[in-house]
Each structure stands twice: as C-alpha cells, then as structure tokens.
Amino acid sequence: MVLTYIQDLKIRIRKLRVISRTLALFISIAVLVLTALTLHKFLSTRSIHRVVRLPSGENILRTPWAKNTRAWPTYMYFGVTAVSVLLNFATIFSYKCGIEQANVAAVVTSTFSWVNMLGNFIVWCVAATVYRTEKDKNGKSDDLWGWTCSSGARAIQKEFVGDINFSSYCNVQVSRRVREI
Predict the structure, then answer these.
(1) Which of 1, 67, 82, 170 is the most exposed place for a label (fewest CB within 10 A)?
(2) Distance (Å, whole) CA 45 – CA 63
(3) What letter does residue 60 receive in the DSSP assignment?
C-alpha cells in the first residue's frame, strides 16, 4: 500500500515537472518573440529619415530613434532569452531519452536560470545606475526601451506613424519590465 502511494506520488511529480518545464519553454519563447520583434523593428526602421518640426519651428531630418541609440541591453536580453529557449527545449526533448537524462538537462537549465537571474540582477543594477546617471546628465532616453516611452518619441510619432507605433512598443517594454520584477 505504501509502495503504491510512493509510486503514484512519483508519477504525479514527474507529470508536474513536465508541465512546469513545458510552461518555462513557452514563456521563454514568448519573451524571445517580443524581444526579436523589438529588435527587428529597430533594425528595419533605423535608416528611415523624415522631416520633423522642432518646437522652435526649425525643420530637421531625423530617424525615429534617439541619436546614438544604445541597443546593447536589448541585444543582451535577446541572447540570454535565446539560450534559455534552447536549454528549455533541450530539457523537454531529453524526456525522449528518459527521465534521468531529462533531470540532468533540468539541472543544467536550472543552473543557467539561477546564474541568469543573478547576472540579470547585477546587469540591471549597473544599467539602471548608468541609465539614471546618463539621463540625469543629458535629460534624454537614448536606449531602445527608454526611447519608446519618452516624450521625444511621442513628439515625433505623427511623422513616423506608418513606420512605427511607439506606444505599442512602450507597452511591450513596460509589461516586460513588470514581469522581470
């Protein structure tokens, strides 16, 4: 009787692990897609130039993005997310080889997740400090995430209305930041 209960418990735990690992894969894929879409939009629109009227009345030719846009945080996030998708996929795929191989793959994935979380915390602390320092220095947001939600982007939205919708990308960035916290 006790042996049957233990076997039943093991089966339930294995099923829950498969569900948990599958969900982790789908969440990683969703974040990868959102990050890829943001990068794609940046890369496909960064060479578009439009005439924009400044508040002073002067007309200038500019791109939809901040001058000297810092895209490295988005590239880094994309890379980490891509590795996470690969590791989660490897964990799910390893179930074809057996439970023991799946557990080994899960240990590697979990270790990566913890290292990734610690690395993200350190990088975000440094990036937030640099971002705040630079923003306080020059008063503008020149990274992809800050720019899409900035007043500068809202001010030029009408000139780039057919090319990019800053508010939709701002919403993606804001919801992603909330999920990370």
Answers:
(1) 1
(2) 8
(3) E
Amino acid letter at 60? I
pLDDT in tens, 15-64: 888 888 889 889 889 989 988 998 999 999 999 999 998 888 889 999 99
Do 92 and 22 contact (CB within 8 A), yes or no?
A: yes
The phi, psi pair for 66, rounded to 5°, reads: -65, 150
Phi first, then psi: give them for residue 51, nearest 5 degrees: -80, 125
CA distance linking residue 171 with residue 178, whole number of Å: 11
Q: Residue 163 has which token pair?
A: 């090319």
Q: How many helices (H) and strands (E) would you count in the chain?
A: 6, 2
Spatial distance between the Cα atoms of 6 and 94, rounded to a whole number of angstroms: 24
Determine the Cα–Cα distance for residues 176 and 155; give it in Å rounded to an integer. Answer: 24
The Cα 65–Cα 152 span in angstroms is 9
Q: Which amino acid is at 179?
A: R
- Name residues whose C-beta falls within 8 Å of residue 170's C-beta, 6 or more positions apart in sequence: 148, 149, 153
Q: How far apart are CA 90 and CA 64, in angstroms?
A: 39
Q: What is this structure's pTM?
A: 0.70
